[in-house]
Design brief:
The chain has about 250 residues and is α/β, with parallel strands linked by helices. It is about 30% helix and about 25% strand. Strand 7, helix 6 and strand 8 form a beta-alpha-beta unit.
């Protein structure tokens, strides 16, 4: 088991965002995390990515309890997150963003831009990404910016990659490209957590699914064993027919 979350809790003032969230992820698996808006999906993943600290519960990584106090600490463990909102340095190049904070140096102690660009091009070629190491990030499409974040995760040696609603602003062709990349990462043995609210994407990308409702895990299991109607029932907490009943 790659990751296990046990009864994670998180409060913001008087608001409880997570009350009893549980989730397990295996290597070489795409695990869907679903729920209505406000169910706690992004908050839970930000706890895993070191962006927020849980108020209770336990994060277990490779069988050992860990404290992930910052994104840098999560990265050192091999955890990375592709955010819905772009967190890249817009004025820097693709290569500079990928190696930001860990730039390679030459024999004189200076940053080796040539080495950065060569290594970035190798990763781009390996994954067949439509990128150029010298392109400035502010000029990229939303899909290309996500690819830069994926490249950064791969170069960091990440073994778990979290996608936070990656297709929300993408075209149909860009969405299919994301699916291809997710499956490629899975085949390489990485664990993937994929947050989405788009029911039509499920069968294209996921193996197992966990559903959050009001900050609590209400279902977890193989996607193949769950119907669309059953998934909606877990998400909203009532039968589908009740959604359309008039008072």
């Amino acid at each position: 088991m790659l990751l296990e979350l046990k009864e994670i809790q998180k409060r913001f003032g008087g608001v409880t965002a997570l009350r009893n969230a549980n989730l397990t992820v295996n290597a070489g698996e795409v695990h869907l995390l679903m729920g209505e808006n406000g169910a706690g999906k992004s908050t839970l993943m930000k706890c895993v990515a070191g962006m927020q600290s849980p108020d209770g519960g336990q994060i277990v990584w490779h069988g050992q309890p860990v404290t992930l106090g910052s994104p840098a600490e999560a990265s050192r463990h091999g955890i990375a997150m592709v955010h819905q909102e772009c967190l890249l340095a817009q004025h820097l190049s693709v290569a500079e963003n990928i190696y930001l904070g860990r730039e390679p140096h030459n024999a004189f102690g200076l940053v080796s831009r040539r080495r950065m660009e060569v290594e970035t091009q190798r990763i781009i070629d390996e994954h067949k990404f439509p990128l150029n190491p010298a392109w400035i990030v502010r000029n990229l499409s939303p899909a290309q910016k996500q690819l830069v974040e994926i490249c950064r995760a791969v170069t960091h040696g990440s073994s778990l990659l979290i996608f936070d609603e990656p297709t929300s602003s993408l075209s149909e062709s860009e969405t299919h490209e994301v699916f291809r990349i997710v499956q490629e990462l899975k085949q390489k043995g990485m664990g993937v957590i994929y947050i989405t609210h788009r029911l039509d994407e499920l069968r294209s990308v996921g193996d197992r699914v966990t559903v959050l409702r009001d900050g609590e895990t209400v279902h977890s299991g193989p996607l193949s064993e769950l119907t669309r109607e059953g998934l909606i029932r877990h998400m909203v907490g009532r039968e589908i027919a009740a959604l359309y009943q008039r008072d």
